[in-house]
């Protein structure tokens, strides 16, 4: 509460608390008064508050505390008479007469006519005299008693007389308070200095532990210490994590590792990296001290004071000749944080800008700038900054929330097209960018080319990213696959030969430098820095760089083709656009974007097969490409593979639950799928509508009945979304685990089926969604044919008859055990209400049953005769 | 006695609309006047006191008449004014840009009679909050950082009669968690809601409609509270000690010979307060604590003891009720008041620091 106030507010608040204390004091509520004075002191320690608190404590006869308070006052204002007087009172109360007399004499020297002091002095001296007189007479024990009583009497008498005077005194103190303010600040500074002098290493340790503002320098130092073999880099944990990936695959040499680390740093800028070839020069001691002081002040919540310290540190550091851009950046960033807390939003912005100038892409100042922008209600800039932070560190919760917040605000402000009004988001790394810069989704169902920005956006986004895509990350990943044999060879070789090879590459990279510059400023900057580093240090370039050097030359052409393709798409010339993208792919086959765009063209030209292939490729390259999922879904929809389309869309919605277009599309696909199912079933069953309804019902029923096994509940419902009983693709959709579960259930059911028709029916309806004929058969076989009418009783319906016959025929039981089939079919006719039931069977169903029975005729079996079969047929048909 | 405080009318200005409320803008010599134009629209004016006169700085006419306003929940940097209007809408205005409110909520179904704020201006610990009381009988607590939904609503249940809430006040905000709201109703009910426990802590009836309640300080452990009523009476409650059955000790005093519209405590001295009367009079009072504020009853339970009030000054300014009054938080003794004679007056009360 008190923490984030400006100096003025603080002093106001302190003043107010003191006033409250005075009021309480006047109401003779000394304890409460003390509380408010204490609060005032905790906000801004002032001599007046201490002095008044001392008086409040005197009234409560807390002598020692009162003396302590007056001591503080006298430290702040050595000549404060009131404090001296009060200390004298306190000391008198404590029985320290000599000291009390000393204080009083000082007061009387200053103000010879101070009646209070005179009176008190006299009193104390009298006490002393009587004490001495009695000392002569009485023993020490007695003396002590008397001492106490007299002192008490004395103080009480005094106290009452002084009530009025002292209250006046407090009022006076109030007036004089403003004067003391300056001194307060001095005192504060003094305190700070004391803190600074305190042992530094301990402080550093503390700071590292604390969450607030982990000073980058310290971490750098620790890293350098711990990895003495590795070049000192300022790679914080994140960067290290990144590097571990390559480390896993390339443990060959540590130097290589180091180089790679440097590269990732240069590119990633996760934290202020070391831009200079040499390790960053250590900050001058004075600056470090100032910064530490600032940090500790910040942690204590004294933001204004912290800002001051940082400012001092910055001015100090700017005087230095060496390049301290990193340190400066941190300082600016820290000061920005302080200013933000103090409420100086503009100052915060300026500082963030400074920090970012010095160290582009560092997330802390970015985040701070974003919050500052948000404060100023410049949501657009805030959004961009948040997004930028997310590009750097997608897991940053603050940024996630911030971007969401500002997106909401922007939506409110600018309506649905708010994105168009955004300034461009600075790009940063390919992987994260794909996730975050996902533009709106292409139109859902209509295949008409849209001149909309989704396409434009989508195309633009990867473009700016382009240099990065070719940069470190992806290639390094690809590289691990591609160059395995290569690496093995290398491993066999000695590191010296490797060095020779690498120096060649270093030259190559030098050539490429000029090209890189053209592409994007920041990128160029980074690369240039990196290059400089490499040349100076003669480091081994990483393999990823090797890749980069290769791809840089076709990169321009790649871009050109893509650009051309994009414009063609916008105009609606999909054929030529496809060719452009194909060329793109030829140039660099590992570009997901090209595939993805070509897929769009194929879609527009209603070539779903090609589109699907392209989407597959895209998804291979990039698992979480939402657009690719969407397009594949569209393609599969065209191919009438609705279940797969639905699968793609559900996958997409898992990635991006808010995607409206996908939701609409999913509904559409489901509807189509349902229609298809209906038409499929229509062949077998007149009452197909009822069937689906039943399926729905049973689904619900399962949920309730299987309550004892919550897992199965989920499975079945999930199943309901994924697959449908009659869908030929269905079985694929069933995951092995669900299948296992169902099987278990069926086994369970088959064990108990005899005892309970109810269980049989439950198991049967649970299977409705599984399409696994085997399971059906297993279940069916669990009951003897002659028990069928009993077990099923009146639950038998046309659906069930169909299913049974279907299962029997499909699973080839007809040929293996014709007798059994006959028996089952026979007992179906014996079921309750069979005569009514058969009217529900369609002609097609009946034909199917007859053909099944005909199959039985062909089997050599003695269990039944031709007449029996014919009778059965009749039973069904008539 | 020459030493007693004098109330001096420093500036008097006649306006062309009905004035309901006036508030000093903290840390400035400016104040805001809220009211109702004859055509039913709301008036918001900002004046500055300079060189012995008041200067109109800004004027805005809004669609609905303003009834009340407060800076109590605003930060010292922003100093946003929260207002309640005849339509039941709560709005928060940035006085630099009064065209659109920075916050608004359809707070009540009927006119908002009263408003109070806490947590801003360095007064009161904890979150900034605004409380509104309305003719619809409900008292609602708002956090200007939370849109549309009140933080708390205190209203009678369906079966109970809905009394017109005339006044609300925050108090007891001495720690970030503690906070109380006191509300006065037209039937003489005074209810004290504890916002921490979300419970009715105490209620009483003072027979006449309660026009105004105010704690002497919002940001201390409840000390005392003044409630003014119709029929020329006001009550002072000692809020320090609550007896389980008798509640809070109180004294009542006759004043003004007409409705006592308002009571306002001096920000610089909690024991001095001004009451505004229906006959256009202002009375300045001082409260004196008893020798012992707490005493035990026959069963040994602590109960509070009320002190005494003494009239320091009495002045007649107008023939119409004085409905708006505000002490300057910055200058001791400076105050502004508005009366139904469509005049605003800037007053100076002298010698307050000698009390």
Summarize the structure.
The complex is a heterodimer of chains A (878) and B (355). Chain A has 46 helices and no strands.
Write the layout of secondary structure elements.
The complex is a heterodimer of chains A (878) and B (355).
Chain A: H1 7-26, H2 30-43, H3 47-59, H4 63-76, H5 81-94, H6 97-110, H7 115-137, H8 140-175, H9 177-197, H10 200-209, H11 216-226, H12 237-249, H13 254-268, H14 285-300, H15 303-319, H16 325-342, H17 345-358, H18 363-375, H19 379-392, H20 397-414, H21 430-436, H22 453-469, H23 473-482, H24 484-492, H25 495-519, H26 521-537, H27 543-571, H28 574-587, H29 592-604, H30 608-621, H31 626-638, H32 642-655, H33 660-682, H34 688-705, H35 710-722, H36 730-733, H37 736-753, H38 757-767, H39 773-781, H40 788-792, H41 798-810, H42 813-816, H43 818-829, H44 834-838, H45 843-858, H46 866-877
Helix pairs in contact in A: 1-2, 1-3, 1-8, 2-3, 3-4, 3-5, 3-8, 4-5, 5-6, 5-8, 6-7, 7-8, 9-14, 10-14, 12-13, 13-26, 14-15, 15-16, 16-17, 16-18, 17-18, 18-19, 18-20, 19-20, 21-22, 22-27, 23-27, 25-26, 25-27, 27-28, 28-29, 29-30, 29-31, 30-31, 31-32, 32-33, 34-35, 37-38, 37-39, 39-41, ...
Chain B: E1 7-14, E2 18-24, E3 30-36, E4 42-50, E5 53-62, E6 66-70, E7 81-85, E8 89-93, E9 103-106, E10 112-118, E11 129-134, E12 139-142, E13 152-154, E14 165-171, E15 180-185, E16 189-194, E17 199-205, E18 210-215, E19 224-229, E20 233-243, E21 247-254, E22 260-266, E23 269-277, E24 281-288, E25 294-296, E26 302-304, E27 308-316, E28 322-327, E29 334-339, E30 343-349
Antiparallel strand pairs in B: 1-30, 2-3, 3-4, 4-5, 6-7, 7-8, 8-9, 10-11, 11-12, 12-13, 14-15, 15-16, 16-17, 18-19, 19-20, 20-21, 22-23, 23-24, 24-27, 25-26, 28-29, 29-30
Task: Give the key terms.
heterodimer, A: 878 residues, mainly alpha, 77% helix, 0% strand, B: 355 residues, mainly beta, four-stranded antiparallel beta sheet
């Amino acid at each position: 509460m008190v923490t984030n106030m400006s100096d003025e507010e603080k002093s106001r608040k302190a003043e107010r608390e003191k006033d409250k204390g005075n009021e309480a004091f006047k109401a003779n509520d000394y304890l409460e008064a003390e509380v408010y004075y204490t609060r005032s002191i905790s906000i801004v320690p002032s001599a007046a508050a201490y002095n008044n608190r001392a008086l409040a404590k005197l009234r409560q006869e807390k002598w020692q505390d009162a003396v302590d308070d007056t001591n503080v006052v006298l430290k702040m204002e050595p000549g404060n008479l009131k404090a001296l007087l009060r200390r004298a009172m306190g000391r008198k109360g404590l029985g320290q007469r000599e000291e009390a007399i000393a204080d009083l004499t000082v007061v009387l020297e200053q103000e010879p006519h101070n009646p209070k002091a005179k009176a008190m002095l006299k009193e104390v001296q009298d006490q002393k005299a009587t004490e001495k007189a009695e000392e002569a007479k009485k023993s020490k024990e007695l003396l002590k008693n008397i001492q106490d009583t007299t002192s008490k009497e004395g103080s009480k008498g005094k106290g009452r007389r002084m009530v009025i005077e002292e209250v006046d005194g407090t009022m006076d103190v109030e007036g004089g308070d403003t004067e003391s303010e300056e001194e307060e600040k001095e005192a504060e500074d003094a305190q700070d200095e004391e803190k600074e002098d305190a042992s530094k290493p301990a402080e550093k340790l503390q700071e590292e532990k604390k969450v607030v503002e982990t000073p980058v320098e310290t971490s750098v130092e620790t890293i350098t210490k711990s990895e003495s073999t590795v070049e000192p880099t300022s790679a914080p944990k994140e960067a290290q994590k990144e590097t571990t990936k390559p480390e896993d695959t390339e443990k060959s040499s540590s130097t290589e590792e180091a180089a790679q680390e440097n590269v990732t740093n240069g590119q990633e800028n996760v934290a202020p990296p070391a831009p200079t070839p040499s390790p960053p020069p250590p900050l001058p001691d004075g600056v470090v001290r100032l910064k530490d002081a600032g940090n500790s002040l910040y942690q204590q919540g004294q933001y204004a004071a912290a800002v001051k310290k940082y400012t001092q540190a910055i001015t100090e550091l700017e005087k230095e000749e060496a390049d301290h851009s990193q340190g400066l950046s941190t300082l600016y960033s820290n000061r920005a944080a302080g200013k933000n807390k103090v409420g100086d939003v503009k100052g915060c912005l300026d500082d963030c800008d400074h920090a970012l100038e010095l160290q582009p892409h560092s997330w802390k100042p970015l985040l701070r700038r974003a919050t500052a922008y948000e404060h100023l209600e410049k949501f657009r800039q805030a959004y961009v900054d948040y997004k930028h932070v997310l590009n750097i560190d997608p897991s940053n919760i603050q940024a996630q929330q911030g971007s969401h917040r500002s997106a909401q605000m922007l939506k409110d402000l600018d309506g649905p097209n708010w994105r168009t009004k955004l300034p461009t988001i600075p790009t940063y790394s390919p992987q994260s960018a794909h996730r975050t810069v996902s533009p709106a989704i292409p139109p859902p169902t209509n295949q008409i080319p849209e001149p909309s920005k989704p396409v434009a956006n989508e195309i633009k986004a990867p473009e700016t990213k382009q240099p990065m895509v070719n940069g470190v990350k992806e290639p390094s990943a690809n590289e691990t696959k591609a160059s395995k044999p290569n690496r093995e060879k290398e491993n066999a070789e000695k590191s010296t030969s490797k060095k020779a090879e690498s120096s060649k590459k270093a030259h190559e990279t030098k050539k490429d430098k000029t090209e890189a510059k053209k592409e994007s400023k920041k990128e160029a900057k980074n690369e240039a820095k990196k290059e400089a580093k490499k040349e100076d240090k003669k480091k081994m370039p990483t393999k990823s760089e090797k890749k980069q050097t290769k791809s840089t030359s076709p990169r321009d052409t790649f871009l050109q083709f893509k650009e051309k393709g994009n414009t063609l798409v916008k105009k609606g010339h999909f054929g030529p656009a496809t060719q452009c993208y194909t060329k793109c792919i030829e140039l660099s086959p590992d570009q997901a974007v090209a595939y993805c765009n070509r897929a769009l063209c194929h879609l527009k030209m209603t070539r779903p097969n090609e589109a699907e292939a392209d989407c597959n490729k895209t998804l291979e390259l990039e698992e979480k490409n939402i657009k690719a999922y969407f397009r594949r879904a569209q393609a599969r929809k065209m191919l009438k593979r609705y279940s797969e389309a639905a699968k793609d869309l559900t996958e997409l919605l898992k990635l991006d639950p808010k995607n409206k277009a996908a939701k609409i599309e999913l509904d559409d696909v489901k509807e189509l799928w349902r229609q298809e199912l209906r038409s499929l079933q229509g062949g077998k069953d007149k009452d197909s509508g009822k069937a689906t309804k039943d399926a729905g019902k049973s689904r619900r029923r399962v949920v309730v009945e299987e309550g004892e096994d919550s897992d199965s509940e989920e499975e079945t419902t999930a199943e309901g979304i994924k697959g449908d009983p009659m869908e030929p693709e269905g079985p694929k959709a069933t995951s092995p685990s669900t299948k296992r579960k169902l099987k278990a259930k069926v086994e369970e059911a088959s064990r108990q089926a005899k005892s309970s028709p109810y269980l049989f029916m439950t198991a049967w309806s649970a299977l409705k969604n599984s399409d696994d004929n085997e399971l059906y058969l297993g279940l069916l076989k669990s009951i003897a044919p002659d028990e069928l009418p009993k077990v099923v009783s009146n639950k038998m319906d046309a659906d069930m008859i169909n299913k049974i016959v279907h299962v029997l025929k499909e699973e080839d039981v007809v040929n293996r055990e014709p007798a059994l089939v006959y028996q089952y079919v026979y007992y179906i006719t014996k079921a309750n209400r069979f005569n009514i039931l058969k009217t529900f069977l369609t002609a097609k169903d009946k034909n199917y049953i007859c053909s099944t029975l005909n199959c039985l005729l062909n089997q050599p079996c003695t269990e039944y005769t031709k007449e029996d079969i014919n009778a059965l047929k009749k039973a069904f048909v008539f | 006695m020459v030493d007693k405080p004098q109330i001096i009318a420093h500036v008097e200005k006649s306006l062309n609309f009905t004035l309901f409320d006036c508030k000093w803008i903290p840390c400035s010599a400016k104040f805001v006047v809220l009211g109702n134009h004859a055509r039913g629209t709301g008036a918001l004016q900002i004046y500055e006191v300079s060189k012995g006169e008041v200067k109109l700085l800004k004027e805005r006419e809004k669609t609905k008449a303003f009834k009340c306003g407060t800076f109590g929940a605003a930060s010292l940097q922003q100093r946003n004014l929260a207002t309640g209007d005849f339509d039941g809408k709560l709005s928060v205005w940035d006085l630099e840009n009064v065209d659109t409110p920075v916050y608004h909520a359809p707070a009540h179904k009927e006119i908002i009679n009263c408003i109070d704020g806490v947590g801003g201006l360095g007064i009161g610990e904890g979150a900034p909050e605004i409380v509104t009381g309305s003719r619809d009988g409900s008292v609602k607590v708002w956090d200007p950082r939370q849109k549309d939904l009140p933080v708390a609503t205190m209203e009678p249940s369906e079966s109970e009669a809905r009394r017109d809430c005339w006044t609300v006040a925050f108090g007891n905000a001495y720690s970030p968690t503690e906070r109380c709201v006191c509300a006065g109703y037209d039937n003489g009910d005074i209810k004290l809601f504890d916002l921490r426990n979300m419970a009715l802590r105490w209620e009483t009836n003072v027979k006449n409609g309660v026009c105004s309640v105010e704690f002497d300080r919002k940001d201390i452990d409840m000390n005392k509270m003044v409630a003014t009523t119709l029929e020329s009476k006001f009550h002072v409650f000692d809020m320090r000690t609550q007896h389980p059955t008798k509640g809070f000790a109180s004294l009542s005093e006759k004043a003004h010979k007409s409705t006592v519209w308002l009571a306002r405590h001096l920000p610089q001295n909690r024991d001095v307060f001004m009451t505004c009367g229906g006959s256009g009079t202002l009375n300045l009072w001082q409260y004196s604590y008893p020798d012992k504020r707490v005493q035990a009853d026959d069963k040994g339970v602590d109960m509070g003891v009320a002190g005494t009030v003494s009239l320091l000054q009495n002045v007649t300014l107008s023939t119409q009720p004085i409905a708006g009054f505000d002490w300057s938080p910055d200058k001791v003794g400076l105050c502004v008041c508005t009366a139904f004679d469509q005049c605003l007056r800037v007053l100076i009360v002298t010698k307050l620091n000698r009390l």
